[in-house]
Amino acid sequence: MVQQEIRRGPWTEQEDFKLVYFVGMFGDRRWEFIAKVSGLNRTGKSCRLRWVNYLHPDLKRGKLTPQEEHLVIELHSKWGNRWSRIARKLPGRTDNEIKNYWRTHLRKKKAQEKKHAPVQSPTSSSCQSSLTSNNHAVDSHASKKGGQESFYDTDQDAEQGYSMDDIWNDIAMSEENINMQQVYDGQSEECCKFSCPPIHSPSLDYSSDPLWVMDEEERKMLFPIICDQYFSCYQQGTATLTG
DNA sequence: AAGCAATGCAACCGCGCAGAC
DNA sequence: CGTCTGCGCGGTTGCATTGCT
């Protein structure tokens, strides 16, 4: 079988749909499997990352609240760069998000320090301790992107943007049109709701069965209707948005 | 209005850990 | 017990956007 080139870089909306769909079907554990079965030509890692950091339905979008900021600062002073650990204390936030947030503030803080104390000893390992102690100063979080609506932002501009909520809604809606049971006899509709927490490969262990490791052709044979309906549904959605 | 710099965030990389065999 | 595989984590990079001159 010809090894297809692994896709890299930004994810397209179509890829997002595919991933959401297959995670809903197989759960969010077996990423290599999902990567193969979905035909995304992405690595399992990449799929996981995309899901965890962006597509998971429990994710909050938008800026950290002052309380969350405070908590991050507090926990970071306690645990250091244990981002995943910190993230667990902030439901709906990812380690990546918190890490980025911290970096941003670190940079701001460093810049400020440079301004105010240009001849400070560099050995004071100032970043962490000083940051944790007075990072409230930057709590204003003068994010220049405050008014900017990301394509996926759910908090803002629900009318204009095509948010993740919309995507989930679309998926939920399209599910009503797709009779999943015809394709996956034995898997209840419940398994495909993409509800959270995600389903962990109910009752069947696909991974151990070589039959479930599909190549492109097999995949097309099994999923053509689902995928086609999905994407036409998706395309309708975006078409109405893009005009 | 154009060009450049700064910023924010999505995605990748490499390493380590855990479980299966 | 060693090896393999998959996953998770932290660090880093690259690019798009925004702000400034």
How would you concisely characterize the structure shown here?
The protein is an all-alpha fold and 243 residues long. The chain has helices at residues 13-26, 31-38, 44-55, 66-79, 83-88, 95-116, 126-134, 164-177, 180-183, 216-222, 224-242. α1 packs across α2 (31-38), α4 (66-79) runs antiparallel to α7 (126-134) and α8 (164-177) crosses α11.
What report would you give on this structure?
With 243 residues, this protein is mainly alpha-helical. It is 53% helix and 0% strand. The longest helix is centred in the middle third of the chain and has 22 residues, at 95-116. It binds a DNA duplex (21 and 21 nucleotides) through residues 8-11, 29-32, 43-46, 48-50, 52-54, 81-85, 95-97, 99-101, 103-104, 107-108, 143-145, 148, 150.
Features:
about 240 residues, mainly alpha, elongated, DNA-binding
Order of helices and strands: HHHHHHHHHHH
Radius of gyration: 22 Å
State the secondary-structure class.
Answer: mainly alpha
Got a strand count?
A: 0
Largest β sheet strand count, sense and barrel closure: none
Ordered list of secondary-structure elements with their pairings:
Blueprint: H1 13-26, H2 31-38, H3 44-55, H4 66-79, H5 83-88, H6 95-116, H7 126-134, H8 164-177, H9 180-183, H10 216-222, H11 224-242
Helix pairs in contact: 1-2, 1-3, 2-3, 4-7, 8-11
The structure holds a DNA duplex (21 and 21 nucleotides).
